[in-house]
Amino acid sequence: MATGTNANINTAIVTTAQSNVRFIGPHYLSVFPYYLSIPSPDDIQSLEYHLSDSNPDSESIHYWTLAIPRPYGIEDAEKFVNNCLDRTKKTGVCLQWAIRVQEERTGNNGNDLRPHDPVNSRFIPTLVGMIGVHLSSNDPKRYEIGYWLSLTHRNRGVVSSAVAKACEIVFEGLGEEEIYSQTLVGNLSSRKVLEKNAFEYLGVVESNSGDVADNDDNDNRSSTDIDATAATITTADIPITSPAKSIQHTWLFRKRK
């Protein structure tokens, strides 16, 4: 990994973000000992580790996301963190968080300290994913939520809890009345996360036109029926490096306050 990485980060932005920006965290999740907090220069190498092709676990992350560059290198991580911190400085609001877990330092014996406490010197915060809220490129008045999580930390309720916390910030902190999310057709795990958080399925967004095939309540389609229909347009059998992946359709969901 590159040395001197932190030198490329605007430290003034970091200081400003941590002192003046709303919602920087830590935001504790219902799943112990995970929490959300603002990205920092210390996350750069962790981001590269999770998202670079040298990590086989990155395959599932890239397969189900479109916005993350691939291949992913240290420069991409630096740019991402810089953009996050610059945006928080300009807006005064943090809406992009690292999903972290407190891991005990190896070989360190001592008092019975709470790993849930981010300032606990016996435990180190480890980045295991990201979650963020942003204004939609299709509708600048519409907030959308996106996320990814390391493969080894899935199936523990972490993402569901993180989505719940992000929605709480949008509704209670920003005063918004609704939030949307799009997930690639066929991503059943992400769909279950959204449905668990009371997101309503609205339909399939056509990749070329951006039009939504409305969810007609009168057709009495079950989730199984929808999944079966979606299977006819998903590109799960296309190699991830194929340009055809960029034309994949998405499911659109909405949650209201």
Automatic annotation (TrEMBL):
Transferase recorded as keyword: yes
Origin superkingdom: Eukaryota
Molecular functions per Gene Ontology: acyltransferase activity, transferring groups other than amino-acyl groups
UniProt keyword annotations, A-Z: Acyltransferase, Transferase
Gene3D superfamilies given in the database record: 3.40.630.30
Domain N-acetyltransferase: 39-199
InterPro entries: Acyl_CoA_acyltransferase (IPR016181), GNAT_dom (IPR000182), N-acetyltransferase (IPR051531)
Similarity section: Belongs to the acetyltransferase family. RimJ subfamily.
Protein name as catalogued: 7467_t:CDS:1
Organism per entry: Paraglomus brasilianum
Classification lineage: Eukaryota, Fungi, Fungi incertae sedis, Mucoromycota, Glomeromycotina
